[in-house]
Write a structure and sequence with these properties.
The chain is an alpha/beta fold and about 220 residues long. It contains ten helices and eight strands. It is about 40% helix and about 15% strand. Strand 7, helix 9 and strand 8 form a beta-alpha-beta unit.
Length: about 220
Amino acid sequence: MKNHFVLFDLDGTITNSSEGIINSIQYALNKMGLHEDDKEKLRSYVGPSLKQTFLSNYFPNGDEYKEAIKHYRSYYAETGIFENKLYEGIVEVFKEIKKDGGHIALSTAKPTYFAKIILKYFNINDYFDVVVGSHLDGSRTDKKEIIYETLDQLGLPNTDNCFMIGDREYDIIGAKHHNLKTIGVRYGYAPKGELEACTPTHIISNPSEIINVIR
């Protein structure tokens, strides 16, 4: 794997972050005078950008979604960010990639600022050569843009040696746009059938399978 470049999504791929994200969304909606108790519906919002979640599902008119995002972040920055845990076996995957001379990057729709806090919180930041997320002002939330910026910071490596690992269709579609090999993870937050519909190169059920696929 010496020349391999492995891009990871964060939520639903490296960390099981649904509790903190769902609580943050509910907090924001409550502040906006709305209530949402459907946990499965809320789980489906783990992965897409906050703008997409609030604009598409709750506040389609005007700039109300921006206020919702502010409320979300007020809870998330203090509490939700730490209502989170690493998936079992994912650190061993990082160790194996690095041991074999591979490169690791993070490509997430979460703001880079929060992504870096999470990596440091779990003491895994040193495994990552590049960390790219969205901007706090709500820009660069499209996964295609995020992956391109990641590849650019990695020196635009040969895509034959690049993998994108993620749990949602946004990860797979964005990576395919740049001709990367793709690994969809079933243990994340994709609704049933979503990964199959976007046809990643591989689909796996737990982190321990990643090394065998990229080797």
